[in-house]
Amino acid sequence: MDLIERVRRWAVARPCVLVVDVPGSTALRWTVEAELDRRGWPLALSPAGADLLLVVGTPGEDLAQAVDVVWSQVPGPRHRASISTGDEVSSALDAAVEALGEAAGRGQPGDDERPSPGDLLEQRGGGDHMAMEHGGTDADGHGEGVPHADGHAMDHAGMDHGAMGHGGHGEMDHSGHGGMDVAGLPMAGTTPDRDGLRLDALQVSLGPVLAGWPPGLLLHGQLQGDVLSRVRLTWVDADTGDERPASDSGDARLLALDHLSRSLEVAGWPTAARDARRARDRLCAADPADVEAGHRRAARLARRVRRSRTLAWSLRGIGVVGDAEAGPFRGDVFDRVRWWCELASAPEPPADVPPGLSLERVAGALDGAELAAARLVVASLPLSHPAARRMPLSARV
Amino acid sequence: MSEMEIPVGTSAAAWGTWSAVLTVTAVGLLLGFLVAATDRAVLTGSGARAAVGTLQSGTRLLLEQRRTTLAPDSLLWRLGCAAVPVLALLSLAVVPIGGRTLLSSSADLVWFNAMEAVLWAAVWLVGWGPNAVHALTGGYRFLIQGLSYELPLMFALITVGVGAQSLRTTNVVAAQADLWFVVTMPVAFVVFLASAAAFAFWGPFASPAGADIAGGVTSELSGVDRLLVDAGRAVFLGAAAAMATALFLGGDAGPWLPGPLWQLVKTVGVVVLLVVVGHRVPVIRPDRFVEIGWMVLIPATLLQALLVSVLVLSGFYG
User: Regarding predicted confidence, which is higher, B190 or B179?
Assistant: First the structure.
């Protein structure tokens, strides 16, 4: 009996962590990622693979609702924790793994205690609206029905839609809703795709909780096969939370390494992404010897990435941004990765980084892109964040 | 030629069916563990701790809740998950363990290839089952990848069969008594290992379970289902490494040490080589890999087969 409980606790001692980063908490996320790397806790790619849901920063209202939906999809034993300051990272993770051990030691709730996935759907108002947005994060106000995750009341495993961009179920073609329903969701209708074929069109939302995804970004679009169209990008909580400080202060080399680690993660090169995170962590340090080591590491990584023929061959020709306005971000994804490499390995921190691209521009580049290409484009481009954009506005007032 | 015809009984006949099946299963699980631990060690840079970590994750998944999704195709989904490790173990049935295979027929290499071909259906069902975008995308990616590696893999296996003039694995091992096949068939060897990574959708061929689609076919899996699929992939990779040892590296042949130990050493070597090299390369996107598969690998493996055929006709293999 005691032995079983101990085995259960041992099994979750190195949990898979799903990190939710809040816009404006970049530096805090770096600290958290460094600590997770140090402990060897793997990062989960989806709620299904997570044991620990870690919210980094203080989410706004919409993001908090999205986090609730994500939490409802995490299988037990599970724990949810949030971190809001850099000093408490280590102790918060200790407390989290302790609490997870408690939950695991108690054993898991049986399947009969779990409401069916359809329940969340009904609470959301069901029916036709569901075809559009399952994230609980959209501005159309479907969010009210999302139950709040207080304790165990909220155990909807496996809601398939949503904040993670899973299975946005298709909306009927605009001809109407007369077609077949499956589990309360209308079947996907067909529309012509980019090659002129009539293919099933699914309405999907990607974000805001995805690996290697800019914090707080939401992508709405139509998916045919794995080709995106009618792409619209928005920030969650864009109309609130204007006190949030502009996140990206400090050394541009750190930002470059952050973009590199994100792009490399999405490009499927986890060891290189880990090196980027380590270099970033060292560069952040106070000790000059550490900073020097971080710089060497960054230079080594930059050489490795620039020389990789496989990477070049994989990323060439994707997400081309043509016009001169884009500045150093002109070209394809590989050009941008190389530019980030150059910036990351610069001996002195550059004076300034060019401003990010507007969401409309990026959305334009995503139209007609495959899912994989879209993810690479988003990871490789800096986006202008509302917090940064609003700063002059609030300064004027 | 004479030593090729040595009749070798199956392990089922020699040790009894059940003990032979149990041995193959145990060897398969150990191979899978070896692959998973090596993979983890390279990924996290944690060294020996990775072995404990692998056991820990396995236990964790055993204790975790299974989740479901909205309107899933449960039957086919669970069937697909269970099929992945079963097929991996079945493919191991024609790999010699202690000099004997569990099954032995005149078409061992075809059996190995067939298990891997049925895996197409299994992985596709794992992607199809949960009724979710990312999982389905992963399933499609696996099929596209399959279109690129399947023919080169078949030609690589055929090359071995031609060289040994038999499709029976034990005969292939015996045919390498004088010279390992890797010497005359380097292209087939490399293609075989790359294909192994591709059908286990691992390393540079992991895009069906890629980070860009939230884990793809594995994105909706938890608990036992995730354990089955992940373990199945690892066992497949381990089985392929053991098969590569038998087909190209002389199997259990070697001086001083007993045969099974040689086979183990070679298999571990192939696994380490595969994992270390595999993680030095980023994921190759399936749509670009099609180009290499058809324009480079198929001609290359055909030339390899031609070369070996000429060598056979000239009596090179004795």
Answer: B190
